[in-house]
Design a protein that fits this description.
Receptor-associated Protein; 13 helices; flat; 311 residues; single chain; mainly alpha
């Protein structure tokens, strides 16, 4: 009973802390945040601010957080070579987000380790078994170290999935604009305005592409940056097509139509693959949930007769 109360108390405490953090770091609604981020990726605003990455630094961690990261040299001990690229792929382009990631990699394992140690000490769980106590504390610390990376990977997957699903439609819209005689930059602008309701990450990436095309000296660099930020094969093919068109001066209408057809085919194949996986995935849940009920229904009359002395 004491252990159950301790677990409930820790759960309520962690939930309250999480809600407080969400209120502090994301006080705006999702719609307002998205609208502001799209407005901040306008080329004229980026040129005036001198930023080429398409994101104003509005999120800033606390002064104490930055001081801890600096004094403990967390970038040296907990930083990775691809952390910056992964943050950009997840949609976090501000340098402040990198500071927050380093702080999370430090504070989460420390907190879980201390909480696990306190829990074992207060409740006396696994008392007399030093090996399992140390193993549990080490496991919680390792899990806390990996939690920020897991969150980041999930954010990247969700963003890529959103872009992948809306990519063929965006290419169709871009193809229509290009074939109607509109140049590539106004076409991308129109597509980013129309595709936002279907995929906000794609609209944001197209706005950043527009900003870099207007800001950088080479459009090729802007196309390559788009692929690096998104890291999807259809986007890489799109960037390669635009680079070749810029180099050779060839029309891109037919190439865009081909890319759109390929992307739509890939999306259909992905849907069929997921549909084919539903059967095996549902087998075990159906066995665990339906089979005991069926067995109970079948043998219940027999058990009732046996208990009533009918047999």
């Amino acid at each position: 009973m004491h252990q159950a109360l301790t677990i409930v108390f820790l759960t309520i405490t962690l939930t309250a802390v999480g809600m407080l953090i969400m209120q502090v770091f994301e006080p705006e609604s999702v719609g307002n945040v998205r609208r502001r981020r799209l407005e901040d990726t306008q080329p004229d605003k980026l040129r005036a601010s001198g930023q080429a990455d398409g994101d104003r630094v509005r999120f800033m961690p606390g002064r104490q957080v930055r001081r801890i990261v600096t004094r403990l040299h967390l970038a040296r001990y907990l930083g990775t070579d691809d952390a910056r690229d992964r943050l950009v792929q997840a949609g976090f382009r501000s340098p402040a987000h990198e500071v927050s990631l380093l702080f999370a990699r430090f504070i989460i394992p420390v907190s879980l380790t201390l909480m696990t140690t306190a829990y074992l000490f207060v409740t006396g769980a696994l008392e007399g078994n030093l090996f399992f106590q140390v193993a549990l504390i080490a496991f919680m610390g390792f899990a806390g170290l990996k939690l920020p990376d897991i969150f980041l990977s999930r954010a990247i997957e969700r963003r890529q999935e959103s872009i992948r699903m809306a990519w063929p439609d965006a290419l169709d819209l871009l193809n229509i604009c290009v074939r109607s005689g509109i140049s590539i930059e106004p076409s991308i602008r129109k597509v980013s305005d129309k595709i936002g309701h279907q995929s906000f990450p794609l609209a944001e990436e197209l706005r950043i592409l527009l900003a870099e095309m207007a800001y950088l000296s080479s459009r090729r660099q802007a196309y390559e940056n788009l692929y690096k930020r998104v890291d999807l094969t259809p986007v890489r093919n799109f960037a390669s097509t635009l680079i070749q068109a810029e180099m050779n001066g060839t029309p891109i209408g037919d190439a865009l139509k081909t890319l759109a057809d390929e992307g739509r085919l890939d999306r259909m194949n992905e849907a069929e693959r997921r549909a084919a996986q539903m059967g095996p995935k549902l087998t075990i849940p159906m066995i665990l949930t339906l089979l005991p009920v069926l067995i109970t229904i079948i043998i219940s009359p027999l058990l009732i007769k046996m208990m009533s002395g009918g047999l």
